[in-house]
Predict the structure of Catechol 23-dioxygenase protein.
Amino acid sequence: MSDKTLTSAGFYVSAEAFVPTDNPVPTPSAPPPEIVRCAYMEIVVTDLAASRAFYVDVLDLVVTEESDDAIYLRTTEEFIHHNVVLRPGPVAAVAVFAYRVQSPAELDKAVAFYSELGCRVERRKDGFTQGIGDAVRVEDPLGFPIEFFYEVAHVERLAWRYDLHTAGALVRLDHFNQVTPDVPRATRFMQDLGFRVTEDIQDEHQTVYAAWMRRKSTVHDTAMTGGEGPRMHHIAFATHEKHNILYICDKLGSLRLSDHIERGPGRHGVSNAFYLYLRDPDGHRIEIYTQDYYTGDPDNPVVTWDVHDNQRRDWWGNAVVPSWYTEASLVLDLDGKPQPVAPRTDRSEMAVTIGADGFSYTRKSDKDDSSEYKLGNQL
Amino acid sequence: MSDKTLTSAGFYVSAEAFVPTDNPVPTPSAPPPEIVRCAYMEIVVTDLAASRAFYVDVLDLVVTEESDDAIYLRTTEEFIHHNVVLRPGPVAAVAVFAYRVQSPAELDKAVAFYSELGCRVERRKDGFTQGIGDAVRVEDPLGFPIEFFYEVAHVERLAWRYDLHTAGALVRLDHFNQVTPDVPRATRFMQDLGFRVTEDIQDEHQTVYAAWMRRKSTVHDTAMTGGEGPRMHHIAFATHEKHNILYICDKLGSLRLSDHIERGPGRHGVSNAFYLYLRDPDGHRIEIYTQDYYTGDPDNPVVTWDVHDNQRRDWWGNAVVPSWYTEASLVLDLDGKPQPVAPRTDRSEMAVTIGADGFSYTRKSDKDDSSEYKLGNQL
Amino acid sequence: MSDKTLTSAGFYVSAEAFVPTDNPVPTPSAPPPEIVRCAYMEIVVTDLAASRAFYVDVLDLVVTEESDDAIYLRTTEEFIHHNVVLRPGPVAAVAVFAYRVQSPAELDKAVAFYSELGCRVERRKDGFTQGIGDAVRVEDPLGFPIEFFYEVAHVERLAWRYDLHTAGALVRLDHFNQVTPDVPRATRFMQDLGFRVTEDIQDEHQTVYAAWMRRKSTVHDTAMTGGEGPRMHHIAFATHEKHNILYICDKLGSLRLSDHIERGPGRHGVSNAFYLYLRDPDGHRIEIYTQDYYTGDPDNPVVTWDVHDNQRRDWWGNAVVPSWYTEASLVLDLDGKPQPVAPRTDRSEMAVTIGADGFSYTRKSDKDDSSEYKLGNQL
Amino acid sequence: MSDKTLTSAGFYVSAEAFVPTDNPVPTPSAPPPEIVRCAYMEIVVTDLAASRAFYVDVLDLVVTEESDDAIYLRTTEEFIHHNVVLRPGPVAAVAVFAYRVQSPAELDKAVAFYSELGCRVERRKDGFTQGIGDAVRVEDPLGFPIEFFYEVAHVERLAWRYDLHTAGALVRLDHFNQVTPDVPRATRFMQDLGFRVTEDIQDEHQTVYAAWMRRKSTVHDTAMTGGEGPRMHHIAFATHEKHNILYICDKLGSLRLSDHIERGPGRHGVSNAFYLYLRDPDGHRIEIYTQDYYTGDPDNPVVTWDVHDNQRRDWWGNAVVPSWYTEASLVLDLDGKPQPVAPRTDRSEMAVTIGADGFSYTRKSDKDDSSEYKLGNQL
């Protein structure tokens, strides 16, 4: 990381640049659609009632509308129709990652951009789900099902309706996280699509283990995590404060559902946010997240973490559970069939660090971290 | 407000439109510069040591650099050189409201835009303050001194340096607030400059008492408050959580400086943020602010509050102290002389509501609010 | 306050002593009952349904049992049957302040103690309310209806049932507050009853405006506030954290019930607790309170505040609303008739300070506080 | 647990009783001293400067006085001279667990009580440490060094000095925790000393793995943890809110000292408190703790947890790190020599549960918890 500046906090900063990759997706000549933000995810679940109990009764997402075929959910500060669609199906998977674009005209750009890449593209003037108008769905070059839309029904933003908020209120959809075998290839493609890189994890050989990228002015609208893919790693919702996240844990304990807690709560190194990872009844991973930082300036510094920095994924050095690295949700093609999964092409973050396990350092200067009290060192 | 939709929370929403005004600033044919966000304020103080004690020792802003002539301060998550410049002078005033633009080329646009309006424009390749390069300052048509810049020195973002954060850490510059005699005229001009309106306060005669407008995806980068102007109403910094704001109050009490607390803490109706207003040693007003909502979608609904809604400025119906309506800081012209102040052209919010005083309603349906326990009803 | 030690925070500390009074209640030769803590209050309300809506639907107290004649409510961490009884009646008033004693045998002591004072005493083996066994009620020498009991039905402590907790959960009954014309007389009587003084407010003439006293190891189980009495000033419930109290304000705003907020939220000088005062549908005052300090040591220092210290009742110097000084609830005799109210015998705190109004000081050294921005100075 | 009542939260409650033990310490005929609360711990450290850096610069305990021989530390709300004495020595150990008693006369009772048991007893009229007067130290029947004192220098309670508080301020000493081979024997002895049992962990064979007991009205002043002993498991300090504990973690990350975090943060099942365990430079364990519940009623229900309940030690089911079960600090005899350590006599909690590892249950009804995402299930 000789071209980067070491900060006093232990990570590196540098100016954003196109990510080098030896296996690039071609850059289309057509301009990409102007994306505003991640907007919703359509999730296939195997037992709609069980999922409703989790997303509505436990997580307290707001039901915009529901039927036997689908439940449309939103966060308390959302004014568009939904942030999540739950749809019953035979195989738990993600049907689409949906982004809102800046204007109706961006849909034509999306069609041209992906068509030039030879991707399968489908457009429906009346939308693919309730509440959405003209929309384009594609199977992107990385194998993910992506939707772009502008037209959407407005619903009441319940930000001021504190009487309806629970102690763990989810206020915003924050981001998606995708698993892909070749992170530089995927990240470079997303840069072509207009995403800005904010943070990444690398090793001394410039192996990139994960990268975070944004359209709105937060750390990310999506991230690329290295692993067998294409798969969906998680969908993240924001709370206002940290105690809201702790309450969700407390409530899961009270309901004797604490085994839905997979990792955390903790403080991320990457993003500086406070986090919690849950697993829904089908194993789909949900992050609850709060308090990352503003990234909207054009020259926002890119933060690079050393994969051997024990605080990169948990600032407190707490262990990353293996399933967090290995498990993820299948994604569907536009016919609703699961996309085949390809293996990781580069080295695995878990293999080189095994969580917070003593193959990483807390203080880079230390020869020997054997004195530490972490679980990874004790197993 | 017959053209607007009443929400269940008591305010109205509508689609954004150009604000009607019978006294518009002409719309230039030149395009406006693309503004990223409010970036810093240069504040003239009469006793630099006393101001340093307040901004650095009490509010814990980070000193980027300082001399006898100026102190450059930033928030903990900032990576540009400064968010505040304190400069000693004979008259307490605001020397400039500075915005960051999207690229160096925007400065040419700023020159053309304001020149067409006949405004005084000054450009310095080496900047007007430390840490800033090429910059343009103007006296805008509303009488405010405004700076635009792109080039700026990067400094370390201290977001991860919790060891340096106090319990009241100010993490971001959030917004400015300006006092102007004619709010629709000012707001319409800001729309021409590329700002988006997010909220306003009106009465049944469409008198506009205040309006909030944004470039970044928060409720505002600046607001226009009706009153004698041009003056600076306040500069606002964000904390992560509400307890950080309460701590600032607690600390002021411990230092026997509680008389610097002018209003709050409380919950705004407008913006839904938690707030506190302080006055610095010269009387410059500072807001501490947290947890408004995302506004970045192109069709973000505009929120309109009834000036007679007792919860519009404090969701808990607590009184607005008269000085908050009447007092504000002078602003300087580009020669450093105070701009003359013109009187409010429309009706005064204080005159029609007198804070939370019983001339307003808590429940619109109530004929008589005389049973309430608010200070305004008891004086 | 020449015999007291001035602290760096601006108040005084001294060793606890019997409070001097020129009009004492005789000290009985019989020992007082050993009181454990304040336990419940029986409150007469004029509209039981309206009160239920407030205490249960707004404040989220837990219903232990209810009928047309009474609603029994408890806090989330309580294991005895109730902390509040709401009972319908023609006049809003307090029927009893109830204390739990250390053992069944303490009831005999209570009978002897009050009988020696010539007070009216009534004992019921089956209790005066549901859930309580053997109990003694008295009209005490200050005119207040007081109950002592040991036997009580146990109910489930819902501390771990986070799924049932709202964001403003009330976890404990903390204290009562009584209005009495002669504070030293009342305080000295309470000392004879075994209470320990923790804090008081005095002036330079040793006029005592209010005193706080405890049995359990918090700042108080009850306080004596100077004014027309006997009356009930407030009943206070504890939350875990400050944000829980802010949420209650937010929720009241959402329900368009913000006029139930009388004073605060704020930080007390006395007790150092974070507070909020509400008024129920009958005007009974309720405090929500959190984070005072441990007082259980036998030599816990008594804190004395100067009545002219502007931060004594609000550490941030925010104004005390006049109704908070003047309004309070009637109390009943054992026949259920309102006790007549006698006027304040000493000077009134409001008269000498008028809230946070400039007749008080923020910094004792200041000749002139006229520069401050407080509402009191602006009206 | 057939004699206990199962609650809706999954644990059991029962009336307090003397703990049965087949190997009791004889009950003295002399009455025990009346203990007020745990008051301070004297800790021997091998590098006083390193320990000062941890306790003062990282944990922000207040220095009452210090020399080359000792550092006297207190919490922000303490008014007695110290809660911790750090003293340099060749072997890291605990020199004394000190309790405050109700009056000077209690010291005579302490001498008689322990003398009757044949324990070594030492009394010093001028105290064993700075700031303490007449004091008695004993080697108790369980092998622990215990001090009793009443006389102590008062220092300023800094509760109101928010300007001195950091975001992780430790406000009170909360409790000690001791490791002992035979928990029922130790608990029964503590009952004879006047302690009240509040919670314990048992299995279906009535094996007691740990017990919590109190003098003040919190869940404990000390606890007995089963294991090789006598050893000191931890000393615990309270914060006001949960975010204060999270801040301590964040700060440790910033200082690259996250390897001092051993376990947590998390929510205890036992005590319902929010917690964090740290290890100091010598490996002494420190708990940071907030928000347990009031226990001061004479019939406070005893809570019993099933050792197989996965949420007993962490309500969120997160794993207990092995070192937390196995490591602890030596304790000294009155000559300053380490007490020999005897092995656990009963079954080991770690052996029967291995943390949160799938040998325990989240829902008792589940045959198979194999679907859960906990680290214990993945290693």
